[in-house]
Amino acid sequence: MTSTNPTLDLAGGATAPPAGRRPARRSSYRAAETRRKWYEIIGLTTPAVIVYVMFVLVPIGFAFYYSLFRWRGVGPPTDYVGFDNYVLAFQDPIFLDALRNNAIIVFGSLLIQGPIALGVALLLNRNFRGRTLFRLLAFVPYVLAEVTVGIMWKLLLSDAGTLNALMQAVGLGGLVQAWLADLDIVIWTLLFVLTWKYVGFAIILLLAGLSNVPQELNEAAAIDGASWWQTQRHITLPLLGPTIRIWMFLSMIGSLQVFDIIWVTSVPAVRSLGASATMATYMVDNGFFARLWGYGNAVAVILFVISFVAALIFQRFLLRRDIQGAVTGRAK
Description:
Layout: H1 21-66, H2 84-91, H3 93-124, H4 131-143, H5 146-157, H6 162-169, H7 186-210, H8 215-223, H9 228-256, H10 260-265, H11 268-272, H12 279-289, H13 293-331
Helix pairs in contact: 1-13, 2-13, 3-7, 3-9, 4-7, 7-9, 8-9, 9-13, 12-13
């Protein structure tokens, strides 16, 4: 005679529940776990999304809206001009000079700061006495405030500044220049100041990348008879590629949006002629001080679009391999 209790066998012992009950319980647990994870994701990302929308997307939308009007900042904008502000910007030779100056700063920063930072980082990565002090000195200019750097170099490079006085004192009076007033050399002077300021950041970033290069590879190469230069070329630099590309991306975007050092160091009269203007300084000069708020917003939108497109192109062709590698590694 069998037992009527489905959970008991003939000896009265416990048996497993019916087969259909366990999968249903497991699927409900998985559904609850999935809902809990989504609640966590929504709860953690909602504040960041709200902040991003309020302080990034909404201002961009308002900037584009105001750029369609001829508006001086008083009362609501009513004089709709469409895309005339954009046309005026590209017809202004001063704005075109600002575009050219931004391009000079972008390529100059990559071609000058990059090799200098890489060479110094490779040297500072070697063991020698005083290495920590030299690392600190290389990073000091970057931690200084941009306004401080601008004022300091403006005093040094003025017509009666320290640099010209020093050149005259050592018999190099023929090299004395109006470093910040000569229309032909002012942008190169500002590029030197920017290089002095930001090369320390590139050095520290590359040193961080060098610390992740396995020392065993260098030792194996030395055992195989490779010289120091061959080791750097065939082992260190390829492994340092992702760090170099990240620095290039940050340097490019920063150079497109550079404002503070240019604004503080340059002479307003020279900047108004376009010799030392950038898109950011042009936007402030013609939007804020000239009270052409609609036109200034159009310049801001142009700056945003150029930076955004440059970032997309850089990510598409240079950072894609690094991003795919990071995603693949995380998926594994």
